[in-house]
TrEMBL record, chain A:
Catalyzes the hydroxylation of 2-polyprenyl-3-methyl-6-methoxy-1,4-benzoquinol (DMQH2) during ubiquinone biosynthesis. Has also a structural role in the COQ enzyme complex, stabilizing other COQ polypeptides. Involved in lifespan determination in a ubiquinone-independent manner. Keywords: Iron, Membrane, Metal-binding, Mitochondrion, Mitochondrion inner membrane, Monooxygenase, Oxidoreductase, Ubiquinone, Ubiquinone biosynthesis. Binds 2 iron ions per subunit. It comes from Halocaridina rubra (Hawaiian red shrimp). Fe cation 2 binds at residues 63, 115, 151, 154. PANTHER family: 5-DEMETHOXYUBIQUINONE HYDROXYLASE, MITOCHONDRIAL (PTHR11237:SF4), COENZYME Q10 BIOSYNTHESIS PROTEIN 7 (PTHR11237). It is a peripheral membrane protein. Pathway: Cofactor biosynthesis; ubiquinone biosynthesis. This is 5-demethoxyubiquinone hydroxylase, mitochondrial. Component of a multi-subunit COQ enzyme complex.
UniProtKB/TrEMBL annotation, chain B:
NCBIfam families: diverge_rpsU (TIGR02396). This is Ubiquinone biosynthesis protein. It is found in: Mitochondrion. The keyword Mitochondrion applies. Its main location: mitochondrion. It comes from the Eukaryota.
């Protein structure tokens, strides 16, 4: 954290690059957890009282925890949230609710697609942070590592609950994955 | 065999130079080469990202160059009074440190680099002072100000730093307003208002982050422009102007609150619509 306390002078390439990478990571992760939170909210609005309700509720609670953690880290690292927060807010809910309307398999297929992209994304962030300096970014690395494991668990839960039996599973999954990747790309930048 | 290794080495140099050249400017290329040369054997196995990260993590040559630039900029600031925010001031600054006057070539932006440097320095000074104030207020609750009072005093403190160059400040504003420099000037302004809000205790993580900073930036900028033609003693008129703008913000805040209420209603209506649709489709809880 030393580089955050020292003033960034106008010509200070090293500190600036370092800070920019951390900023980008926290911003996109916060956006992701916000989106996940909204997706599960959408699923619960539709499937809340069915047999998979408790499973989704459990995953939703974990996502809320993740979001709260990043909301705590944001002011700490002085990161701005992404500009597109209102958009992800609506888009997440719509994605969750519309896949849940396809039935519980649809909802689970959506979970599997989203979580697999997120897991990959967290893994690449971990690589980047470790390359940047494992000791300096210890806190962030530990947080991301734990969350990565949680997301992986959600991914497996989805598969256990017949995600692959969803209508047009391959198409659905690929469309959602592409959408998630696009959202990650945009949230990293603005 | 020997010739082959030479050839691959040459290729490697070329590759690194290509990557490093446009990003760092050709000046540093030779330094970068001499640094990266010994490790060129394993660069091919590393991903390009890892290489990027490494090159700035170990770039002590770049650090030295940044230091040099900063010291020339520091030295050039006193010359602004007589030479304006210009290359001439930079040249004078470099000469006063014993470098050639041609060193102003290190600053492709010319005068605007000097403006940015001054802005960044002042922002840093403000940050330190606000940090101090917050610490003092923690130890002694009597010193604690209300949010509006804290913001008003922080903005005033920051604006007072510009008084030193008020005669040529309109030139600096003009340089910042040029489309080429918009990115840097917005970044400077953003850092400034972020410092003020952060130390005022703002911890928002939603879209309000932007509205709050945007409003404060508008107040700051309008007061900064007002100051240019303020002839009153100790800029009293400017501070009165600033306080009027800040009280305007209160009414904006009220407006924002009512719009938030409206959004709440929109959400309730859409949730109701969704559950109606579910009932029509027969997908409500009782069926499943």
């Amino acid at each position: 954290m030393y580089y955050l306390n020292q003033g960034l002078r106008f010509y200070s390439t090293k500190a600036l690059c370092h800070k920019q990478i951390i900023d980008r990571i926290i911003r996109v992760d916060h956006a992701g957890e916000l989106g996940a939170d909204r997706i599960y909210a959408g699923q619960m609005a539709v499937l809340g009282r069915t047999s998979v309700g408790p499973v989704i509720q459990h995953m939703w609670d974990q996502e809320k925890e993740h979001k709260a953690k990043f909301e705590e880290l944001m002011p700490k690292y002085r990161t701005r949230p992404t500009v597109l927060i209102p958009l992800w807010n609506v888009a997440g809910f719509v994605l969750g609710a519309s896949t849940a309307l396809l039935g519980k398999e649809g909802a689970m297929a959506c979970t599997v697609a989203v979580e697999s992209v997120i897991t990959d994304h967290y893994n690449s962030q971990l690589r980047e942070l470790i390359a940047l300096g494992e000791d300096e970014n210890k806190e962030l690395i530990e947080v991301i590592r734990k969350f990565r494991d949680d997301e992986m668990e959600h991914h497996d839960t989805g598969l256990q609950h017949d995600a692959e039996l969803a209508p047009a599973y391959n198409v659905l999954s690929n469309v959602i994955k592409a959408g998630c990747k696009a959202a990650v790309f945009i949230s990293e930048r603005i | 065999m020997n010739r082959v290794t030479h050839f691959t080495e040459l290729l490697n140099c070329f590759h690194i130079a290509l990557r490093a050249g446009p990003r760092r400017g050709m000046r540093t290329t030779s330094l970068v080469l001499s640094q990266e040369q010994p490790s060129h054997d394993n660069t091919s196995t590393e991903s390009p990202d890892a290489e990027d990260v490494e090159s700035f993590a170990t770039g002590s040559a770049e650090d030295a160059e940044d230091e040099l630039r900063n010291s020339i900029l520091d030295a050039a600031l006193p010359f602004v009074h007589s030479y304006g925010w210009s290359q001439d001031a930079l040249a004078q600054g470099a000469e006063s440190l014993g470098y050639s006057g041609m060193a102003h070539g290190m600053f492709p932006g010319g005068g605007v680099d000097l403006v940015n440097h001054f802005y960044t320095l002042c922002n840093h000074k403000l940050q330190l002072s606000l940090e101090e104030q917050v610490k003092e207020a923690q130890g002694n609750p009597e010193l604690k100000k209300g949010t509006t009072a804290f913001i008003a005093s922080a903005v005033e403190e920051r604006l007072r730093m510009n008084i030193e160059y008020i005669d040529s400040w309109h030139r600096a504003l003009a340089l910042h307003a040029s489309p080429l420099n918009v990115q840097n000037s917005l970044h400077n302004l953003g850092t400034l208002v972020d410092h003020v809000w952060y130390y005022a205790g703002d911890r928002t993580t939603d879209f309000n982050w932007y509205t709050k900073r945007g409003i404060l930036a508008a107040v700051y900028k309008s007061t900064e422009i007002y100051m240019l033609q303020d002839k009153s003693e100790d800029f009293q008129d400017s501070w009165a102007f600033m306080n009027r703008r800040l009280s305007d913000v209160h009414s904006v805040g009220k407006c924002a609150q009512s719009s938030q209420k409206f959004m709440g209603i929109v959400r309730d209506v859409s949730v109701a619509g969704l559950s109606t649709a579910l009932n029509i489709l027969g997908m409500n809880g009782r069926v499943r």
